[in-house]
Amino acid sequence: MLQPDRRAFLGAGAALGAAALAPRAHGVEQDRPFDASAEDLRTLGKTPHTRFAVNVELWWSKLPFLERIRKSAELGFPGVEFWDGRSKDLDAIAALSKELGIAVTQFTGWGFEPGLCHAKHHDAFEQGIREALEASKKLGNEHLCVVAGNLQPDLTLEQMHANVIAGLARVAPLAEAAGVTLMLEPMNGRVDHPGHCLYGSADALKIVRAVGSPRVKLLWDLYHMQISEGDLCGHMREGLAEIAYLQLADHPGRHEPGTGEVNYSRVLREAHELGFRGWVGLECSPKGDPLDAARAVARADRW
What we know:
By secondary structure, the chain is an alpha/beta fold. It is built from 10 helices and 8 strands.
């Protein structure tokens, strides 16, 4: 066994200490205090690099739904997203978003059940996507989330993924004609969605590449990816061509940036430097006051 050279070890330690104390051009911003004296709430969500869309299922969740959209606009966020639109007053949402000048960026066009991953549900899936595309005409959104579905006891994982490919290929021409991108979203199984059929980026990339449509891409939820596979920047680089939309939440807790282990300043800067200019959905639950969560989002976009 080689013995370490003590002088070399001490020299390396001194160098590391100096590096840690030295100012960095791309330092971590998300942990710095927010300068409230310079704050303008009306522009807080209009960040310099990233277009954020507030998930109004999770933000201000005790308020009436339309009031959540208004709150998002009051803080200057350019977009909002939500889950299933079928139970909502789409005409009222469309009118309010137009009045406020805030975009509806995406909603869930197809959820967990009945599973897209079983071919027997594909007729219903096609009908559901047709209805979601009609709703998109009202709302003006150019993206729809699609969920692959939970495990089917009579099918192997390979069969389920083949069914997801077939189902997406079937509706791809509809999305292409409508100018709306269907986004397949892989989940995580360790914390939120045990028993789902699609985790992480590798299989999801295989599926959308097999479909081969410019209107079938991925909703790349960084929270799910962190739990499923980590190496957020590396995997994002590998999958960039298939990413239509990002979502974020810190882990653990699924709260705003700065409450967990992810350096979102670094991740968002990487996305920007890679050329990503799409929406980033804030599918995170504010840990406390939503205003403080909005400040944390603004800090994460400073670099």
